[in-house]
Hints:
Elements: E1 5-14, H1 20-37, E2 44-50, E3 53-61, H2 62-73, E4 78-88, E5 100-104, H3 108-119, H4 121-126, H5 131-148
Parallel strand pairs: 2-5
Antiparallel strand pairs: 1-3, 1-4, 2-3
Helix pairs in contact: 3-5
Bound molecules: flavin mononucleotide.
Amino acid sequence: MSHMLHSLAYFSRISEPVGPEALQAMVGDILCSARRRNPSIGVTGALLFSGGCFAQVLEGELADVELIFETIQCDPRHKDVIVVHFHPIVARSFPEWSMAFAGIDCGERRAALAADALATPDDIAAAPGGADFVQVLRNLVMRQAELAS
Ligand SMILES: Cc1cc2nc3c(=O)[nH]c(=O)nc-3n(C[C@H](O)[C@H](O)[C@H](O)COP(=O)(O)O)c2cc1C
């Protein structure tokens, strides 16, 4: 079981409201940590910040996902962590990203998509396997990559 790939998705809320520059710096630091550490244990995933909330998907072997998630859960930069799903997967949704970034609220369409995903965690949790949520994040990551290229 522990060698099977697992996917964990959660939502959380930023601990303290911060201005746009501090937010950029905070998210930059988080991504730096993730991109330094995740590849060393084979964890991939995506991170989104929208409307004061983080959403993140972590993928990897069970023990590795648990290890990273324990660290993340104790991080004082966020609170109210709610797990949306944690289950075995056949294949990764973010195989090429140690931690893809799906964006900070910018661009109306993207913000609307993110708001859809973040406003209804109960609906997403109720959806089979939380697949919709992963799909929303994948779409955001793809769009972010297109904008950056
Ligand atoms: C929303 C959020 C997501 C995070 N995601 C990751 C992650 O995927 N991988 C990781 O190593 N650290 C992540 N972190 C940071 C860890 O909680 C922790 O600060 C970091 O691993 C410490 O390592 P460092 O001192 O080497 O930067 C995240 C933090 C937050 C608040």
